[in-house]
């Protein structure tokens, strides 16, 4: 295998780490929002909305990059159950990165609130205002955010297992470029 086959494309690595930072920030911001209903935290909501839309747009770009660039192979000696877990966890991560912003957008629409990205940029509502729909989507958004949090922790644990225990190059394929 050549060196170029052992690493993700530079754009894929950039998107991975940028989105990792954004998602971790979103999880903390979301936790802050869930912990308080105070209007003093309006600034968190004003940060949460555009960051969520940015994640939605970036995950679309990231999926395009993933399907149009080379992906390094997993180690040949990786047990089949771990290969399956890796593939399923990546599908889950991408699904959550797509669904959570869309559900958040729908939730705000169902609340009857404008989806403001800035003081002058408003997204169209994607659902009619409906308190029951809002309540359902709020719970769904919360539970899926918890699922994302635990999936990110599992992803991090797997990366550290590959980097520190197995030392099989999987972590380096996303951390470093070509040697």
Q: What do we call the CATH topology?
A: Fumarate Reductase Cytochrome B subunit
* Major beta sheet, strand line-up: 1-2
Determine the number of helices (DSSP H or I, runs of at least 4 residues).
5
Determine the CATH superfamily.
Transmembrane di-heme cytochromes, Chain C
Proportion of strand residues: under 5%
Residue-averaged pLDDT, rounded? 91
Largest sheet data: 2 strands, antiparallel
E-strand count: 2
Order of helices and strands: HHHEEHH
Keywords: Cell membrane, Electron transport, Heme, Iron, Membrane, Metal-binding, Transmembrane, Transmembrane helix, Transport
Protein name: Cytochrome b
Subcellular location: Cell membrane
InterPro entries: Cyt_b561_bac/Ni-Hgenase, Cytochrome_b561_oxidase, Di-haem_cyt_TM
Descriptive overview:
It is a multi-pass membrane protein. The protein has 179 residues and is mostly helical. The protein has a single domain (3-175), classed as Transmembrane di-heme cytochromes, Chain C (Fumarate Reductase Cytochrome B subunit, Up-down Bundle). The protein contains five helices and two strands. Strands 1-2 form a two-stranded antiparallel ribbon. It is elongated. The two termini are 13 Å apart. The mean pLDDT is 91.
Keywords:
179 residues; mainly alpha; Fumarate Reductase Cytochrome B subunit; two-stranded antiparallel sheet; 2% strand
Topology:
Layout: H1 10-34, H2 42-68, H3 80-110, E1 115-116, E2 122-123, H4 131-166, H5 170-175
Antiparallel strand pairs: 1-2
Explain briefly what this protein structure is:
The chain is an all-alpha fold. It contains five helices and two strands; from the N terminus they run αααββαα.
């Amino acid at each position: 295998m050549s060196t170029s086959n052992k690493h993700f494309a530079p754009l894929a690595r950039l998107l991975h780490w940028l989105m990792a930072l954004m998602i971790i920030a979103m999880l903390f911001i979301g936790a802050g929002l869930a912990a308080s209903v105070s209007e003093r935290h309006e600034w968190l909501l004003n940060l949460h909305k555009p960051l969520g839309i940015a994640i939605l747009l970036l995950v679309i770009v990231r999926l395009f990059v993933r399907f149009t660039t080379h992906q390094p192979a997993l180690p040949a000696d990786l047990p089949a159950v771990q290969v399956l877990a890796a593939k399923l966890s990546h599908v889950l991560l991408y699904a959550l990165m797509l669904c959570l912003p869309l559900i958040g957008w729908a939730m705000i629409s169902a609340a009857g609130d404008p989806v403001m990205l800035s003081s002058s940029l408003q997204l169209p509502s994607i659902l009619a205002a409906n308190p029951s729909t809002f309540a359902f989507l709020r719970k769904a958004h919360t539970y899926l955010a918890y699922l994302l949090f635990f999936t990110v922790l599992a992803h991090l644990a797997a990366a550290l297992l590959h980097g520190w225990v197995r030392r099989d190059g999987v972590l380096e394929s996303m951390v470093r470029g070509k040697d």
